[in-house]
Amino acid sequence: MSEHQSFSESDDGEPDVNGSTARKHTLGFNVTAPRGETVTNATLRLYALITRDQYAYIGVERRVRVEMTVPSVPAGHHGHDAGGEPVTVRVCEKDIYELHNAWETFDVTFAVRHWQKHPSSPQFLQIYVESVFSTAGNGGDMDVATMPLTDSEPLLLLYSSVRHRKQSRLELSLMISHEYDIKKKVENHRKKRSLERRTRVRRNTAEIQEEESNMIFEGELPVPGLPQHAHNSLGDRGRGRRGRRRRAKNGCKMKPLRVDFKDIGWDDWIIAPVHYEAFQCTGKCFYPLASHLTPTKHAVVQTLMNSVHPDRTSRACCVPTKLGPISLLYFENSNTPTYKYQYDDMVVLECGCR
Where are the annotated segments for Disordered (predicted)? Predict the structure, then answer.
């Protein structure tokens, strides 16, 4: 969802059913959308200003009409860009009854889609506030706020969607660009890690012992064709029980991961939330792979090869297999506040072996 502000001008409109002149406001916008993005819904929010006798028991009722002008299509031409005389088109209208000042919403999807289809057309909306009945007007009055740069200025909210893969690529590109922005903050940390990797001659002793213990205690029933030291995990006697307990403790599973955007330097472009629970996948993928880990055929083969040749083949990796979205309010293009109800692939929902 994106938010667009407007500029406005006000004047007297046409007479309403009460014989008085209807109020008219002209709102101008500058709506742009990325290529390939489709506007699914557009909502105009107007702040209704109510003035009435404080002792009156009834509210104020008015009809608010939203119109726009489009060029007519001369004979023999096709499309609105043919350059004919302007024609007034009613976008929507709404009868409003209020006792106090309140926000009102209007569906202006038709107008925004027209502006997207015809970028050269002027982006103006005419707002008319008129009486509903001939007896109206004695109990108070109603208008809409149009002053820019105030808390009650008109707002145009756009709800858009793109194809899932393309949207994910754009969001990922945005994150990567901000990752480069904080590159200097983590440069020293990366150098330190690189130095540790270069100076590491062999694996940590504890890790070697754990792998050896996994090979020894994963079971005692031999598998035909496997070396004597490679055992399956179906044994249920002696040390095999300890192997199962070890697998239950160190197996692939989902664990909490609280992400604070300030910690990673993203608080300068992400407005809300300040932090969220992302979860993470940790642990090892032991053979045989359990069905709830939804292993691929390749993961099964790789894990079996690890049982035969642990020095040549690594285990399958415990990774997220299903991700979910969060709602995100952030700055797009440096200065445009953008709200997305579903910012995809931000929360781990399931873990598996791949």
Answer: 1-25
| Preceding peptide of 295 cis, ω within 30° | no
CA distances from 314 to 299, 303, 318, 354 (A): 10, 7, 12, 12
List the structure tokens of 118. Answer: 């015809």
The structure tokens listed for 251 are: 């197996």
Q: Give the list of residues 6+ apart from residue 123 with CB closer than 8 angstroms, or none.
A: 28, 29, 30, 31, 115
- Answer for the pair 222, 228: CB distance below 8 angstroms, yes or no: yes
* CB of 159 closer than 8 Å to CB of 113: no
Contact, 318 vs 284, CB < 8 A? yes
- Measured CA to CA, the distance from residue 346 to residue 172 in angstroms comes to 11
Rounded CA separation 157/323 (Å): 28
Identity at 235, one-letter amino acid code: G
Q: What is the pTM of this model?
A: 0.48
Reduced to 3 states (helix: H, G, I; strand: E, B; else coil), residue 195 is helix
Position 345 confidence tier, pLDDT thresholds 50, 70, 90: confident
Distance CA 91, CA 128 (A): 12
Q: Are 9 and 26 in contact (CB under 8 A)?
A: yes
The residue type at 334 = S
pLDDT digits (tens, 9 = 90+) for 24-79: 999 988 887 666 667 888 899 999 998 887 777 788 889 999 999 887 765 555 55
* 281-305 pLDDT, tens digit each: 999 888 788 888 888 888 888 888 8
